[in-house]
Design brief:
The complex is a heterodimer of chains A (419) and B (248).
Chain A lengths: L1 H20 L1 H39 L3 E5 L10 H5 L7 H12 L5 E16 L2 E11 L3 H5 L3 E4 L4 H6 L3 E4 L1 H7 L11 E4 L2 E9 L14 E5 H4 L10 E6 L5 H16 L10 E4 H44 L1 H9 L4 H37 L9 H28 L2 H6 L2
Parallel strand pairs in A: 3-8, 5-7
Antiparallel strand pairs in A: 1-9, 1-10, 2-3, 2-9, 4-7, 5-8, 6-7
Helix pairs in contact in A: 1-12, 2-10, 2-12, 2-13, 4-9, 10-12, 10-13, 12-13
Chain B lengths: L12 E13 L4 E13 L3 E5 L6 H8 L7 E6 L2 E2 L5 H11 E4 L11 H11 L4 H14 L15 H13 L5 E5 L7 H16 L4 E4 L3 H4 L4 E6 L2 E7 L12
Parallel strand pairs in B: 3-8, 3-9, 6-7, 7-8
Antiparallel strand pairs in B: 1-2, 1-4, 4-5, 9-10
Classes of the chains: A alpha+beta (419), B alpha/beta (248).
The complex binds adenosine-5'-diphosphate and magnesium ion.
């Protein structure tokens, strides 16, 4: 055991000296590992970031929300005509749903809000923000969506019932329209298609992720107020909040039954509506993640393969250059295993240096990307660092083994005669 | 330590070889480098192995040093049959019981003198502090205490060979094997090396020195002559001329 440790220390020292004596050569050899480790860690960082960003924005959409509408999320595909021919979606379904929920004992659902949408420009003086996602809804919207208010307040039931022209602006929209500060927006008027709306609130900042919808570029108003400029129901949907303790399955089937009642569907008739939820988006992002991972693995594999061949080659060179030294060490009592370990360690050492450089470059790039795309959360997790180290060591062992084994099998007397 | 030289007491055999052959298989031809060698080396022998180039001196030394194994015959090292040993056991014999001195020194160029001398102790699994102490002590024996932290390329040829001798000595081997130890040195420096060998012999060590120079062989107490892979003669030196440094 003692022998193992003294030899380990000796071999580590030899490896360090050897690499130190051939700095440039070692670094060039490590290039493949550097690129490989960068690929694997950058890929991991991107996937981590996607995960984080996505789960953040799913939280924003509400993981406890069911969206009832005409279209399924993620595209209709070949069935486009089928969805196209479904009856128009109406906002008063929300009202009917709420009544059913109230009548159902132990309902898995809590509340439904209608959401009629319009994409319009909002103007104030010379400023204008185009194509704002404007939602016409009820006073329960803020509660159902967990949309917090930064300044002012949400509209109340009375304002909804009377259809008062009030509006709550998203954080970015308010920022663009009121350069004097978002808090100064309260009480001011903005214009949509020439109509005047009084700003009574500004949503708290949510942050956005990869261009997904965020409250920051939305606005909300009482549904009757929206109807003054938007009659269509093309994008209308109902958001239904589940009870916190209810299972998704329960909630979905209850909602499905309620909607079929409202739509007057007979048993055996197909649903002519769709119940969407954020989980369905997770499938989409899952695909993106798989693609990034596949690409990353391909680059990593390629770089490591090239790197491993380089390291194998340099280890062969090292064995040849030091054949006489191997003979000397063997004469002084080094066992075969000791020589094997010595050259393996040298290969692993080069790979570890490559791994460290690769990691350092990744950290650097993470800062650069982080500054360039602040919205994307690049995350270098401890697991990734462990993965980088493991990948480096494994590459070293795999590529160093054949030459190291050859070195250990050299005949000592032959090796001493070398040169 | 005692200065034994030749005593009446029966000396312990270190090496016993019987009818040893070493045939190199070169594919098309076989080279019979050693052809039926019998040789006993006793404790505190001081043997010079002589013979013309190609007579099999180095081959014999490799066999004696357990760097190589005979293709036929028997080899007992301190009573143990070397033929039955695996590679690791041979490595351990070399490590603990044999000290090598090479013609071209074979020091590790990037390691300090001290670390070169330590190396056999590393492979013996000795702890660092003990190792350094032993290595320093041994460097004292060859008169190089003040060069412990130099690198081999900062030393003269004679000094390098003294480092190699210290390295051979550091694990207290049963026998020291030197293949042409003065071959790369001028005659004066060569003499210095032989002075060290003389003192090692007097301290009770067992020495086998390959040389083709009569001047060097004179310092030994016994001369074995090889020719064409056989022992031509094996005689005590009639009037040994112990190497002494007159200037010191
Ligand atoms: N590794 C080897 N392979 C083939 N032939 C060898 C080898 N080593 C030595 N020989 C041959 O064996 C004979 C003895 O060589 P060697 O022991 O080196 O003699 P010496 O040291 O006395 O000059 C020579 O003919 C030499 O060519
Ligand atoms: Mg020779």
């Amino acid at each position: 055991m003692r022998r193992f440790f003294t030899e380990f220390a000796e071999n580590a020292r030899i490896a360090a000296e050897q690499i130190g004596a051939h700095k440039m050569r070692s670094l060039l050899t490590a290039l493949g590992v550097i690129i490989g480790v960068m690929a694997v860690t950058l890929m991991g960082t991107a996937v981590n970031g996607l995960d984080k960003g996505f789960s953040d924005s799913l939280d924003m959409l509400g993981t406890d929300l069911l969206y009832v509408e005409r279209w399924p999320w993620g595209g209709a595909g070949d069935d486009w005509m089928r969805y196209r021919n479904r009856p128009t979606f109406r906002t008063d379904y929300a009202h009917q749903l709420n009544e059913i929920i109230l009548d159902t004992p132990n309902s898995a659902l809590e509340a439904a809000v209608p959401c009629a949408l319009s994409f319009r420009a909002i103007q104030r003086g010379g400023e204008s923000v185009s194509n704002v996602y404007i939602v016409g809804t009820t006073a329960a919207y803020g509660y159902v969506n967990r949309a917090d208010i930064e300044f002012g307040r949400f509209f109340n039931d009375t304002e909804y019932a009377s259809g008062r022209n009030v509006i709550i602006l998203g954080y970015d929209v308010a920022g663009a329209l009121f350069e004097t500060g978002r808090e100064t927006a309260i009480g001011q008027d903005v214009r949509i298609r020439g109509l005047r709306y009084e700003v009574i609130g500004v949503f708290r900042r949510q942050g956005s992720f990869l261009g997904l919808q965020s409250f920051d570029n939305q606005a909300a108003m009482p549904l009757p107020a929206l109807r003054r400029f938007e009659r269509g129901n093309w994008h209308t949907h109902i958001r239904v909040k589940m009870r916190p303790d209810a299972s998704i399955h329960e909630a979905r089937s209850e909602l499905e039954g309620a909607m079929r009642r409202i739509r007057g569907l007979l048993p055996g008739q197909e649903n002519d509506f769709e119940i969407n939820q954020t989980e369905m988006l997770e499938d989409t992002i899952g695909n993106v993640k798989t693609q990034i991972a596949l690409g990353g693995f391909f680059i990593t594999g390629l770089a490591l393969f090239v790197g491993a061949i380089g390291i194998m080659n340099i280890t062969f060179v090292s064995v040849r250059e030091r054949t006489r030294e191997i003979g000397t060490r063997r004469a002084l009592g080094a066992r075969r295993g000791t020589i094997l370990a010595q050259f393996l360690m040298e290969a692993v050492g080069i790979c570890l240096i490559g791994g460290a450089v690769g990691l350092a470059l990744t950290v650097g790039l993470k800062f650069v990307f982080g500054a360039a795309v602040p919205a994307f959360p690049f995350i270098l997790s401890p697991q990734l660092i462990v993965a980088a180290v493991v990948v480096s060591i494994a590459t070293g062992i795999l590529s160093g083994f054949v030459p190291a084994f050859q070195a250990s099998r050299l005949d000592p007397a032959e090796a001493l005669r070398h040169e | 330590m005692s200065t034994t030289g030749t005593t009446a007491r029966a000396r312990r055999p270190i090496i016993e070889i019987r009818d040893v052959e070493r045939v190199y298989d070169l594919g098309k031809i076989y080279v019979r480098a050693l052809d039926g060698i019998d040789l006993d080396i006793l404790e505190n022998d001081y043997v010079a192995v002589m013979g013309p180039s190609g007579s099999g001196k180095s081959t014999l030394m490799n066999l004696l040093g357990c760097l190589d194994t005979p293709t036929a015959g028997h080899y007992l090292f301190e009573g143990e049959d070397v033929a039955g040993m695996d590679d690791d056991e041979l490595a351990d014999i070399r490590n603990r019981r044999i000290g090598f001195v090479f013609q071209s020194f074979n020091l590790l160029p990037r390691a300090t003198v001290l670390r070169n001398v330590e190396l056999p102790l590393v492979y013996a699994g000795m702890g660092r502090e003990e190792r350094i102490e032993r290595a320093r002590e041994t460097l004292g024996i060859v008169g190089l205490s003040d060069r412990a932290h130099h690198r081999p390329n900062e030393l003269s040829g004679g000094q390098r060979q003294r480092v190699a001798i210290a390295r051979a000595l550091v694990n207290n081997p049963s026998v020291i094997l030197a293949d042409e130890p003065t071959g790369n040195l001028d005659s004066r420096t060569g003499e210095d090396i032989m002075v060290i060998f003389e003192s090692l012999y007097r301290a009770g060590n067992t020495l086998i020195v390959v040389t083709h120079e009569d001047d060097i062989a004179r310092h030994a107490r016994r001369v074995v002559r090889l020719r064409d892979g056989r022992i031509e003669s094996d005689e005590p030196v009639e009037r040994p001329a112990p190497a002494e440094n007159a200037l010191r």
